[in-house]
Design goal:
Blueprint lengths: L11 E5 L10 H15 L3 E7 L10 E2 L2 E6 L5 H19 L3 E5 L7 H6 L4 E4 L12 H17 L2 E4 L2 H11 L4 E3 L25 E4 L8 H10 L6 E4 L6 H10 L4 E5 L4 H9 L3 E4 L8 H8 L4 E4 L2 H7 L4 E3 L5 H10 L1 H15 L4 H20 L13 E2 L1
Parallel strand pairs: 1-2, 1-5, 2-4, 5-6, 6-7, 7-8, 8-15, 9-10, 9-12, 10-11, 12-13, 13-14
Antiparallel strand pairs: 3-4
Helix pairs in contact: 1-13, 6-7, 9-12
Length: 392
């Protein structure tokens, strides 16, 4: 196992712009939990800003070594992230931190608050958010503007995929720090929890995704239903503010498709990944995806939506689809050649070793120390500067 190098000076690092921890939603939250706890283990003072929900226990102020600050948010899709980050930024203005990592370029309007507080900021740009179907013309335009503001007002940019780096070089002529997510390597071989869902190891297809059009759950379900599949398709996932899309996806299913909703029990979820005949990955705009890496680390064979982010990670070990018409043949291949899926899964798991959370956390640590050192040396804050370290 890769370990972080010698212990540096302790600094105060704020992680801002997500739903917070424990991670129960998406890639940003997973990153905050995995990186934040490792930075705390390194002796840093890590503060995570969390959104208040109806079941928030305000008495809980620490999680895995990270200090938690719970603040409310407007419960409206277009304003939830922005409103919570605004409160977080003003909280930081008065409480301060040595460095802030802001997740999601959409939060760019609040970067001047952190600049005014003298806090160096790295913005994790995520994927191409403006391509998401859930946003109308106004929302898409907002995200394009927010990208340009994040480039202008951040001290550094973080990209979790080479394709995202390429986009910012081509669109804005700036470099970014490549910091992908990590892939947990699962080796237990446990299958006991599958009985809870009446599943047999190796005898089902699996989808794990937030229900959003650009994750192509509807395409996977439609294509599967067109096939003569004998093994069930298990669909794990849900999404706030997505009732219409959820109804569309469920309407496309038949008796072979099992919609089980969100699964937050990590042990059960890990067993679902590890024992699937095929993991179907439909994500298309979010860069390197934690669900994809978790499936690889679990040793699952993977069929993925044909986009550069997925090919970048899977390479020749993946099989790819562009629309529903591609899926029946892939279903047939998976169900008639178990040995091929087992071999592909082993290769993917070996590739997943390159995506190590310890190395990712060291990348964040080096970035934070570099930003603070540059700030203390009197470096001008004139937008993103080139930091092209590639980890892992």
């Amino acid at each position: 196992m890769y370990r972080l190098s010698s212990r540096p000076a302790r600094i105060r690092i704020a992680l801002v712009g997500t739903r917070g921890v424990p991670a129960r939603y998406g890639g940003f939250e997973t990153c905050v939990e995995e990186v934040g706890q490792r930075l705390a283990e390194r002796g840093h003072d890590v503060v995570v800003y969390c959104r208040t929900t109806e079941d928030t226990d305000h008495a809980v102020t620490e999680y895995k070594g990270m200090k938690l600050v719970h603040l409310p948010a407007l419960k409206k899709r277009s304003l939830e992230t922005l409103s919570h980050t605004g409160l977080s930024a003003w909280h930081l203005f008065f409480r301060r931190a040595d460095v802030a990592i802001v997740f999601n370029a959409a939060n760019a309007p609040w970067l001047p608050v952190l600049r005014a507080a003298g806090i160096p900021v790295a913005t994790h740009m995520d994927g191409l958010e403006w391509k998401r179907a859930k946003w109308g013309p106004l929302g898409k335009r907002y995200y394009r503007i927010a990208e340009s503001l994040a480039v202008r007002w951040s001290d550094a940019l973080i990209a979790d995929a080479a394709g995202i780096q390429d986009y910012y070089r081509q669109e804005f002529d700036v470099d970014s720090t490549y910091l992908a997510y990590g892939a947990p390597i699962l080796e237990s071989g446990a299958t006991d929890r599958l009985a809870e869902l009446n599943l047999v190891p190796g005898e089902y297809h699996l989808v794990v995704a937030r229900f959003e059009p650009e994750n192509h759950v509807h395409v996977i379900v439609e294509g599967y239903v067109r096939s003569r599949a004998e093994l069930p398709l298990v669909v794990v996932g849900s999404a706030p503010y997505a009732d219409d899309y959820t109804r569309l996806v469920t309407s496309l299913g038949d008796a072979r498709v099992r919609f089980v909703g969100g699964v937050w029990d990590q042990e059960l979820l890990d067993q679902l990944y590890a024992n699937a005949r095929i993991y179907w990955h439909g994500h298309s705009v979010g860069g390197t995806n934690p669900s994809l890496l978790r499936a690889m680390g679990a040793g699952a064979a993977i069929n993925a939506f044909d986009v550069n982010f997925n090919r970048e990670v899977l390479g020749a070990d993946g099989r790819y689809f562009a629309d529903a018409s591609d899926i029946p043949a892939l279903v047939h291949a998976a169900e008639t050649s178990r040995s091929d899926t087992v071999l592909r899964g082993k290769k993917s798991q070996a590739d997943a070793l390159a995506y190590d959370w310890d190395r990712v956390a060291e990348g964040y640590e080096q970035l934070c120390l570099g930003l603070l050192g540059r700030r203390r040396a009197g470096g001008r804050r004139s937008g993103a500067f080139p930091l092209t370290t590639k980890l892992p």
